[in-house]
């Protein structure tokens, strides 16, 4: 039984409005830039929400954390422009700070109710070896927000809104592979827009790693030509609670 088909949910590339919630200013590009570029070209409205200020990054060479935050904010705007992101929202939590998952949830519910997306996108907090607290807290808060954005008992302010689907990137259990070959150069450019993070001596190695990973994924599409792909775990809201088969869907 395909629950998404049963519920009449659109394919990932057919959604009309998406909020992409990233723990740090560069995660959306690394995880999904090619798919986001394709969505933008298809007329999908893309809203970025960035949970932390990126201030814990050690690679900017900036003297103060305020300066790091400023640099990364500019880089985030530049990357978003390359892809066609229409709006950027910052939650402003400190990178590696002591904020809680619930703090993120409380800020996400009003944004979802205001923006009314038909899909959320974020990091997969259940990737088995994910050790970064910002990624785990963000992914889990977003999944919880899926369950409660339509609940007017627990969250009373604003008009309840049900988001039907979520797409996790950086996932170990993908069920959707998107061919992003035509957007690969744009993806790399959008990652490199985060100069303070990627424009350094590690980039050739990282680029090779990204390309190897993306070409491996692309080979699963069994197309004649080689290329690059991105992978997602796409789940319906209904699969986010008491649904053991979600892992295998
Ligand atoms: Zn991150």
TrEMBL record:
Signal sequence coordinates: none
GO molecular function (one): hydrolase activity, acting on carbon-nitrogen (but not peptide) bonds, in linear amides
Pfam family, one: PIG-L
Gene3D superfamilies on file: LmbE-like (3.40.50.10320)
Protein name in the entry: PIG-L family deacetylase
Protein species of origin: Paenibacillus albus
